[in-house]
Each structure stands twice: as structure tokens, then as C-alpha cells.
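Can anyone check this?
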Amino acid sequence: MNRAAPSRNPILLPASALFGLALIVFGFCQAPFSEVLSGLYAIFTMEDVLITDYIAVAGTGAAFVNAGLVTLVSVAILWRWDNTPNGATMVTVGLMSGFSLFGKNIVNMWPFFFGTALYALVKREGFSKHVNLALRGTALAPMVSFMAVRFSPWLGIAVGLLVGFLLPPVAEHAHRVQNGMNLYSVGFSCGLLAMMMVPAFKAFGLNPASAHHWSTGNNFRLGLALAALCLTFTVCGLLRGPRPVLAKYWALLRTSGRVPSDYVRTFTPGPVLVNMGVNGLIATGYILLTGGDLNGATIGAIFTIIGFSGYGKHAFNIVPVMAGVLLGSLTNHVDPNSSALQLAGLFGTTLAPFAGVFGWPFGVLAGLIHSSVVLQAGLPLEGMNLYNNGFSGGLVAIVLYPILTSLVKRRRPVLMEEDLYAMFASDEPQPPEELPGKDGADC
């Protein structure tokens, strides 16, 4: 099949910038200017280890203003260096906006960025190859904040530069061993680095410890805002022509979600917007129906799911995993509305490809296993890896995938992305890259 040359998506980054502005406006609607400023100062001076819900420590206004600022800065960086904005770009924006509600901020993100830029310089490679990873690697932002607050800002900067420099080769290797079944591949890579760094910290007498700042009582107000956001996505998608958009969305639901599943390149924006809206409503509904809390951490997870709606996640492959985590709460004797399992129910959808490749019962199985693994896997990391579910999901994927491949002879039939490209070639979407590649290596 002849593939068209990659081209710049004219909508993705401007729309992402508009989203960042909306977060800032929403934040200033929640609190007066002086309260936002004092809240931002509190955010910048926190150690930021998991779980540090910025709504709990700084208020709703400051939390969303920080999220908007981080989103706008990330979009500006991507506009400058990301030559072909696509589904992977959408993932980066979702991760940066989501985790800037609980752990990332406009201060602690920079050392990792410059560390990865230094790696590209030393390797004499274009920074565009690593720009998404440079932003996603801020999963280890608590290391910078912890060192800066407990000891010295210069020590925090040095640690961030080191981690940012080391992450690209680790991420490239770790991506391969997960076989495209863990969508949060960088979370697994960051977890591996944290497994090395945290014991080193302790050996030098530094004793990081996880935290638990968790806000409650905001479900009605934040639920309405999320519902409005998701409905806006859906309506904007349908405005591009309900019948063809829904036809393509149905085809999207038949994909496996396995990396690479770049829906932005394969489909026109309409079906992706509908997918974003539907997935966001499902994730919000999961929290509300299980008696959970809408706060910085869970909304961060919902934004992440919305971001991955352009790269692998859809209703048919995330719901089985959520059901598996919910089922796991019964076997683990842990309430489904405990903070850990609320986040596992949302972030556990990193294993959505298991439902897409092997069928929904195996998605439930992956979620069930993940609900147990995630409760233990992050303990040695002491809250230093914000993508804790990505680390746990990587462990599950590495073990479960070869077992299922060996034992499950009949798998659910799915359309491959190349088939979908041929189906919709008349709309001139860009085809996905092959594994391994830029999009796969840094997802």
C-alpha cells in the first residue's frame, strides 16, 4: 500500500491550546486571584509524591490554573518540535493536563525536558524524535520536588536532568518487551528508573515517603463540568456529519487498541471527538457509580483516558478492564471507592488492548490481575512515579501476553489499522507508523 507523507494536523494543537485556556478560565472562576496565587505557591513548594491532589492542597482554582499553564506550555513545545501531530501528540497533551492536577507543575517539569534535550544533543538526533518523551518523562517530577524541598533546588534540578537524560534508551527497550499491550509504556520505563533511584536515595539517608492528599465533596460541581466538556466533544464530532462520523466511530470500536493504534491518523477528527466524549462520560460515570470522588487525581485520570481516545482506547476495550478492577475489589477485600482502586479503575485501562485482541473476558481478567498488582507494585517506589498504574500495567502485560498467546488459539477478530486506512482512504487520513517507531517507543 502506498502511504502518504506525514502532514501537520491543522486542528489538534490549536484545539489543545483552547482546552488549556479553558482550564485557566475555569480555575479563575473557582477562586479569586489572590487565592489562586497563594495556591500556586503551595503547589510549587510541595514534594508532590503520590497522591498529592492539588485541589486538596491548593484549592480548585489554583489546581486548574496550574493544569492550564502546563497544557499551554506543552502545546507550545509540541508546536515547535513535533513535526507530525497525531494520536501520540494527543496522548501527551492528555497526560500533561491530567497529571498537572496531581503531581506535575509549571516548575518541576523543566529538568526532565532539558535532560532529554541534552540526550538528543549528545546522540546528535533531532529533538523532534524525543519531544513527546521529554514531556511524558515528567512522570518522575516528584523526584525534583522532593529533592528541591527537602534539600536543595540545585540537587532537584540535577536529579531531573539525570533522569531525563537516561530515560530515552530505557523507554526504547521497555517498549519492546510489552508487545504493545500496555498503553502507558513510559509509565513502565519510569517505574524501572524509580526502582533504581529510590533505593539509591535511601542508601544516602534520603527517605522519601508516599503521601495521601485527597479531596472530597466536589462531585456535583466537577461532575457537571466534566459532563459539559464531554458532551461538547461529542457534539463537535457529530457536527462534522452524524451518519459518516458514527459509521467511522463504529469501525473505530472494532480496532484492537494495541500499539500503534493512531486514531487521529486513521480517522477524521469527527469520530475521535465522539470517542473522547464517550470515553470521558464512561470514566466519570465509573467514579460516580462506585461512590468515588471527583478530585485532582481522578479528573487527571479522566483527562488521560480522553487523551488516549486518540490512541488506543474506546468504549469496547476499556469497560471490560474497569469491570475487572471492580471485580478485583471484592477479591482483594478493598472497597472500590478507596483512592487506590478508584485510580486503578481508570488508569487500569492501560491494559485495554487485552480486551481488543483477545476478547472482553480477557480484558476483565487483565483488570482483575491489575487490581492486585497495582496495590503492591508501587510500594518500593515511594510515590516517586506518577504513572504507577503504567508500571503495574507493564508488569501484567509482560507476564499475561505470552501466556494468552500460547493458550488462546481463537481470538476476537479485529480490523487492523492498515485495513482501516484502506477503508477510509478517500478521506486522506494519515496511516499509522509501524512498530517499533516514534509513536510506539514513546507512548
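Reply from J.R.: I decoded it. Residues 153-177 form the longest helix (25 residues).
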